[in-house]
Sequence to fold (248 residues):
Amino acid sequence: MSKIKNIYAGICKAKLNQKKQFAILIDPDKIDASNIGPLLELAQNANTDLLLIGGSLVVNDVLDELILKIKSSCDIPVVLFPGSSRQLSYKADALLFLSLISGRNADLLIGKHVESAPFLKQSPLEIISTGYMLIDGGVPTSVSYMSNSNPIPAGKDDIAVCTAMAAELLGMKMIYMDAGSGALNPISASMISAVSTAIDIPLIVGGGIKTAEAAHRAVASGADIIVVGNAIEKDPSLIRELAAAVHM
Ligand code: 1GP
Fold:
């Protein structure tokens, strides 16, 4: 099956041109697919660059339906951000093939990848190898509990830097630094700056970003893509100012 591989190329091109990107995280458990129209309209009008789909649990079997609805309503690329190997849909454009490099849970470093590789290899999805780093955001998050792994302590910029560098040297295509959904504190400017300076691959930052100021601080510190989920679930009208803060 022929694959159209252009999501990662688009991300790299934006990085090269110093164009920051704004991504909205949609948790299929928290959104009603039949009611997603207004949110997508806001997202499209704000020039949202990517829609990430995923969550730590995802107990509802609505992934295909949700993505088809999104695809029929807007042309923003849809990227799977799976909390488990069950969160797979061929209707998406791409998948972040996440290895939890901040933890030492072998299953999430490589085990699940071995199990899912034959399916992914045959799938039409663009697979983007991503080093996923969980950073302590001040509260225990679902991802930290579900992954049975410790996040990197918030003040340990050096550990974050070495972890990201190792992932880049291993050939991973992107780094996702995440304080976890609903984090009390977003990732510090100093950690974002230290990691972005140490690597050449695109850096995604998310977790606990609730304001335009916080989004802007993260891009000004070196993040290439900002992901916001929780704050938009609570108030979709924030999309416009968050996107503007990232794009300015
Ligand atoms: C979580 O980075 C994402 O994986 C987004 O976090 O829901 O806190 O915005 P929030």
